Amino acid sequence: MFKLSEVKELIKLIDQSSLQELEIQNDNYRLAIRKPVKSEVLTVAAAPAGQAYIPAPTLSVLSEQLAAPSASAPVAVPAAEPDTSNLHRIVSPMVGTFYQSPAPDSPVFVNIGSKVTEKSVVCIVEAMKLMNEIEAEVKGEIVEILVDNGQLVEYGQPLFLVKK
Fold first, then answer.
1. Cα angle vertex 75, ends 147, 82, to 5°?
2. Structural domain harbouring 145
């Protein structure tokens, strides 16, 4: 199985190189990374060797638990975005599940209008059963929450918009 840190490093290397596509296969797994066209985001697919994978216009990782590639969950495709050039985007540093609070019965970390600092925890992204606290990294005010609680998020996907 490919480690998350290895996949993230490969994504960075592909992004910085002139390569358009990379495929790695060993006895048990196959990993394919394809650079996006301007209208899509980076595609990553991994599946047990010998099984086909279906590249989607969004980042998707197929694990050994999936019975068939077509069993993957649907992924939302972002619509045209309004001009947000004056706002800071807090993005997901990894593929995982977005959570607005530390536990289901706990209050959310931030709401629209919440003031944050560079060290303020704004959410958790669960990846491979690890809960990763995501910090704002800027001082400002949350003006929009771009994903829903429990939603799968992708590497580099915007999660929040912050007015500095």
1. 50
2. 88-163
Tell me 9's DSSP state: H
3-state DSSP assignment of residue 20: coil
- Measured CA to CA, the distance from residue 127 to residue 3 in angstroms comes to 11
User: What is the spatial distance between Cα 72 and Cα 62, in angstroms, rounded to a whole number?
Assistant: 7
What would the pLDDT profile of 39-95 be if each residue is shown by its tens digit? 455 555 555 555 544 444 433 343 333 334 444 445 555 555 556 668 999 999 999
Taking the CA atoms of 63, 68, 70 and 73 in sequence, report the sign of the dihedral they define: negative
| Rounded CA separation 146/5 (Å) | 25
Within-domain flag for 79: no
104 in the same domain as 151? yes
Supply φ then ψ for residue 60, to 5 degrees: -140, 135
- Report the alpha-carbon distance of residue 94 to residue 133 in Å, rounded: 11
* Contact indicator for 134, 159 with CB cutoff of 8 Å: yes
Residue 141 or 42, more confident: 141
Question: Which residues are CB-contacts of 38 (< 8 A; sequence separation ≥ 6)?
Answer: none
Q: Are the CB atoms for 110 and 116 separated by under 8 Å?
A: yes
